[in-house]
Amino acid sequence: MDWSKVKNILIIVFIGLNVFLFSFVINIGEGKDVSESNLKDAEIALNKNGVELECKIPSYADQAEKAVKAEYSIDQSKVFNVLMDSNAKVDGNIEYNKEYKYDEKIIVFIDKNQFKYTNSKPDDDNINITSVSQADKYINPILKKMDLSLSGFKLDRSLVNEDGSITLIYVESYNKNISIFDSRILVNINSDGIKEIQCTLNKIEAKGEPTQTISAYQVLLRNFNVSGTVIKDIKFGYKAESSVQNANIYLPVWRIRLGDGSEHFFDAFTGDKIK
Predict the structure, then answer these.
(1) Three-state secondary-structure class, residue 147
(2) Which pTM was predicted?
(3) Pick among 3.30.310.160, 2.30.22.10, 3.30.200.210, 3.10.25.10: CATH of 73-201
């Protein structure tokens, strides 16, 4: 076999592939959805690199604005009264980052819009939860009593854990269908009741001039080329510009969830990864 000839052929193939990928990356849409043919070609390119897609690549490629955080407070008294025993009391005002305990129940209010609740021995004898749909149906009226209605939320993820408990993660929607990834409620339930609730609510308001975003396939081609990578979910939404708790600026982002459960966020204006 003429190895020098094979080498030249491979070089030409790789150059052609790189040109192909580069043309995808720089081809930003003009406020229109990406064509099906472009999405299909991107999928082929990803597969050639050993990247497996277990979801559709969104065709969304429109303009979006930055957003600012709006003032919002949880009704902490209602949350406390619903989750804790009727005999549990708070002396004075609720303090942030203080553990309030009663029997096996612990609740901590981290901020005016954030709390965490755990119960190591739930004992609700009136439930028999064995499925995600049952868990979802059970938790809805309880959250509603705390003024945490799920009407503006969508079930983003559900997990059946090794111990038989079920974890539900709800993410709030902005303008009905755009996720606010930093505004979410996590609930862990077993057959005896609620084991855990983690709640962080952040309201946002769009502000500034609409700017063209890059499409999801561009983010994938730029950032995922390691063979064996599995893409489970791709979603457009908003996330705080900084990891600081009280960050006020929210960016439009693409969230990529991988097969190992990890989530990666990318600035929808630049395609850069948000750390």
Answers:
(1) coil
(2) 0.83
(3) 3.30.310.160
